[in-house]
Amino acid sequence: MGSSPHTSRREVRHRIGRGGAMQRIQLDLERLRRSGQMLDAVRVEFEEATANAHGVAEAVGHRGLSAAITRFAESWDDRRADMTENIAALGQAASGIAEAFGDLDVAYAASLEGTSPPPASATPRRADAR
């Protein structure tokens, strides 16, 4: 697809090594952004799960069922905290990828149009390189 900053799909081409083969990456940046937002909503639900369970436990009107709901919610606290952390990291990664590739696309499009060179920070690098 084209490199217009008004479309949600972007293609980024880069050379691998000197004179290497071209690779094509096609990303739906809007879908990545929405995924980041949805993962953040899931994270919030996980963070509020115990409080929500206590509210449900109070509303059921049966002491045994109420106690079972509370025990279940609290027994998952540690595991849910780990999952919440992982969900947050995935959401941030999705949003960050969308932002980085969007910025890269705009910078390269501007460079191709001759309006400005791409900034040094727009150079692709491995995700684990720092």
The oligomerization state is: single chain
Arrangement of strands in the largest sheet: 1-2
Tell me about the biggest sheet?
Answer: 2 strands, antiparallel
Mean pLDDT level: 81
Q: Could you say what the CATH architecture is?
A: Orthogonal Bundle
Count of individual beta strands:
2
The CATH first-level class comes to: Mainly Alpha
Through-space gap between termini: 30 Å
Query: What would you report as the Rg, rounded to the nearest angstrom?
Result: 22 Å
DSSP helical segment count: 4
CATH topology: Helix Hairpins
Poorly predicted tracts of residues: 1-7, 12-16, 126-130
Helix content: 55-70%
Structural class label: mainly alpha
Give the topology string: H per helix, E per strand: EEHHHH
Q: TL;DR of this structure?
A:
It is built from 4 helices and 2 strands; from the N terminus they run E-E-H-H-H-H.
Describe the fold and architecture.
The chain is mainly α and 130 residues long. It has one domain (9-120): Orthogonal Bundle (Helix Hairpins), CATH 1.10.287. 62% of the residues lie in helices and 11% in strands. The protein has helices at residues 29-47, 49-59, 63-75, 77-113; strands spanning 9-15, 22-28. A two-stranded antiparallel ribbon has the order 1-2. Strand 1 and strand 2 form a beta hairpin. Helix 1 (29-47) runs antiparallel to helix 4 and helix 2 (49-59) packs antiparallel against helix 3. The longest helix is centred in the C-terminal third of the chain and has 37 residues, at 77-113. The relative contact order is 0.15. Residues 1-7, 12-16 and 126-130 have low confidence and may be disordered.
